[in-house]
Structures are given as structure tokens and as C-alpha cells.
Amino acid sequence: MNSKRAPKEVKTLCEHCSTEFEIRMEHNACLSQSISNFDDCPKCGTRNDTWLAINWQGAAETFQPRVDQWMAKCFGREISADVTERNHRFLEEALELVQSKGCTASEAHQLVDYVFNRPIGEPDQEVGGVRVTLAALCTAAGLDENECAETELNRIWTKIPEISAKQAAKPKHSPLPQES
Hints:
Layout: E1 8-13, E2 20-25, H1 31-38, H2 49-55, H3 63-75, H4 77-80, H5 83-100, H6 105-116, H7 123-141, H8 145-157, H9 160-169
Antiparallel strand pairs: 1-2
Protein name: Restriction alleviation protein Lar
Organism: Marinobacterium lutimaris
């Protein structure tokens, strides 16, 4: 991981006029430093939530509320609050991550059997375990966990129509993201 990162160009989309534009963000820039530079769409002048959210870099404690804001915008409150749906999507993303780092389907199936043959854990402790092991995996793989998360949140703010359409097309209550 680099301790000093170059500024990034991040694409965003105005909710009012659909103009796509790029902004230059300093790594770990905080909201108070960046909002005055990036509050309005350069074409129509409209301030919008997407624009503000994409510019809101900073403390880790702000990430979950910003994801919640994106979830509400993309899916609405009902799907956002559906724990079964969130379980399935979390498991899908976790599997995609470990697959990208070399885990095989056989290893994943062995771990599924191992976990489901043990007593059910406490959610608070398991969330802590997920965060700790994710940070450890990122460190071992040379990835910056926070930077990866911010980059993905920025990306998905610009993909709301596509992601919403994919969600609408999938079978209700299915663990699979789309019909096979």
C-alpha cells in the first residue's frame, strides 16, 4: 500500500440533467475541504445527493450511512432493509473477492460445510470478525480496504439505473442475482 497517493479523477453523473463529468479528488480529502469545490453540476448548476456523496471522502464512520443513502436511492427502503437479500449479496461479493485472490470452488464448499456444522455465531462478533479478516486479507494482498470501498461506492453512484434494472429483473427471494 502506498502511504502517499496521487489525486484521482472520479466520474459522476448529475441527477438533474444527466451530464457526466469528472472531478479530481485528493486521497482522504474530507467533506469540509471538498464540498465548496464540488457542490454543483458544472452544466446546470444543480446540487444533488450523488454529487455530494461522491465528494464525501473521509472518516470510516461515514461510510455506512453513505452506503445506506445509495441503497435507498438505488433500491428503495424495502429491499435495502431485507436482511435475506443483503445476506445473499454480501456472500456473493465475499465469494467473488476470494475467487479473485485464488480461492477455488472446492475450498469454498469445504468452508461452507465447516461453518454450517458449527453453532450459529453472534452477529456483532461476526461483523467484527468480517472487518478484521477483510483488513488482514487486504493487507496481505497489497490492497487499501478504504480506498477500494470508496472507489466502488463512487462507481456505483454512477450505475444506479443499471443496478436497479438488474435487481428488478431477478427472481424475488432467490439467492442468485439473476435466473440461471
